[in-house]
Amino acid sequence: MYSLILLGKRSTDADDVIPRDAQKEPKLTVSYLVDSVGIPIKFAESILKEVSSKDKCNPNSVLNLLRSYDFTDSQISSIITTDPELLMEDAENSLCPKLKFLESREILSSRLNDIVTRVPKILRMEEEKSMITYYDFVKTITLTSSRSDFYKVCELYPYIESSIRKVIEMGFDPFAPKIFDATVVVCTLSNETLEERVNIYKTLGFDVRDVWEMFKKCPTFLNISEKKITQSFETLKKCGLVEEEVISMFQKSPQCIDFSELDITQNFEFLKGCGLVEEEVLSMFKRYPQCIGFSEKKILNAVETFLGQGFSKDEVMMMVNREGVVSIPVVLEFSMEKMIVPRCNVIKALTSKRLLKTEVSSMFSVLICPDEVFLERYVSKHDDQELVDELMSIFTKDQ
């Protein structure tokens, strides 16, 4: 099996990338999985519990192997979260040959990594033919440019075609970015299981149409267990939200159902500890449900980034004022390096040159406007071309 692995482009042998001396490897702990790979804490706990029950498995070897193939921590986190049983695979004798085999079919390693991240179960397929078919299908479908091409590709893979057509019948656009996630869900869950998951949401007050609209936004939400669904629902109600508000939140952002009870309660208490009252925190949750997953570290890092750029504490508070964050909490998810800091640096430069006709009382409006609006309002409107070039240089620095 996998007779083509010798065609792999890497000169590194499995022995070189999979340490045999276990004492030199970091101990696999919950904190290690959370800090080094970014796996949610509750999920890391369940993974560790499962791994500890297996006598012959070396999860560190799996992580080391994926890193040797240049998978990013974010990709590894996605792979392990989607298919945690991969950590219990034999890295040297099972996973490594498969990765080499798949690599022999690719020119760009980034394509390999992207496809394996999308469908990690491919690494647990035992039949070479099945692996080739599934891999080539995912690869080919990403290159199709028209609806007719899409259906032609489907016809070439009749073990997959029925699932694709079923997803489309559910209302999915065949060219929607999440078509692959939707197909994987339909392929892996039986009709009975899908019906059970839909019924769970019906008992919680969701309309069937709502469930399928949520499916289009985040297909993998149907993979979430009944225990996790009800736990997230009840945790938010304990925080002070009523049933209709929780339903509305999940309709907007179904991926939030997967946040753990610990994530939600810790975030809720942390935001209150920052000086917000309970009503303000709940308002943030309702306006932008994803913020229930913002970690304390993420928020503190945002403030530290400002301070590290030379902004004073007063300036930081001006930029992300209380009223602004509560009314539009999405600002906490903006990229510090690519969006917030460049804009703030332009405003600082204009302020130092006394070129702002009216003082910016709050940076919030500056942060949420589109790039083109910001550039027109604060950069390109100036008559001095040297000044425009200088401000543009500040804005694009390190981007």
From TrEMBL:
GO terms for molecular function: nucleic acid binding. GO terms for cellular component: chloroplast. This is Mitochondrial transcription termination factor family protein. Keywords: Transcription, Transcription regulation, Transcription termination, Transit peptide. It holds the Pfam family mTERF. Belongs to the mTERF family. SMART domains: Mterf. GO terms for biological process: chloroplast organization; DNA-templated transcription termination. PANTHER family: CGI-12 PROTEIN-RELATED, MITOCHONDRIAL TRANSCRIPTION TERMINATION FACTOR FAMILY PROTEIN. The keyword Glycoprotein does not apply. The lineage of its organism: Eukaryota, Viridiplantae, Streptophyta, Embryophyta, Tracheophyta.
